[in-house]
Amino acid sequence: MPTLKKAGRPRRVVTDSEEREILGIYMKCPTNAVAIECMLKKKRINLGYNIIHSVLKKHRLAADQKGKQKRKKWIKYEGSIQIFFGIQTGTWLWTADGGVSGL
């Protein structure tokens, strides 16, 4: 009987040498994960900023930002501003309420 594989892309495992390199750079220059990523690229070590940030969080050198952790509400922008082309006058009409008043 066939079995299912795990869904999604496999996680990248950070080696001890990469983790030591990240922490060494952070101790020399305490900065954010994106800046550390650029410094590592100069040393030809390709790690994403998400992986670097997770290593920093693991050692309690970085924290989650509360504003980025909650899901954003879906907003419908259809009714805010609409543009209509007036067939009778041949001009563009802007309406702020989403209605077609003035045609």
Plain-language structure description:
The radius of gyration is 25 Å and the shape is extended. It has 103 residues and is mostly helical. The protein has a domain at 16-65. Helix content is 36%, strand content 8%. The protein has four helices and two strands; from the N terminus they run H-H-H-H-E-E. The longest helix is centred in the first third of the chain and has 13 residues, at 16-28. Strands 1-2 form a two-stranded antiparallel ribbon. A hairpin with a 6-residue loop joins strand 1 and strand 2.
Write the layout of secondary structure elements.
Elements: H1 16-28, H2 33-42, H3 49-58, H4 66-69, E1 82-85, E2 92-95
Antiparallel strand pairs: 1-2
Number of helices: 4
Radius of gyration: 25 Å
On the 0 to 100 scale, the average pLDDT is 80
Number of strands: 2
Cross-sheet strand order for the largest sheet: 1-2
Low-confidence stretches: 98-103
Helix content: 25-40%
Name the shape in a single word.
extended
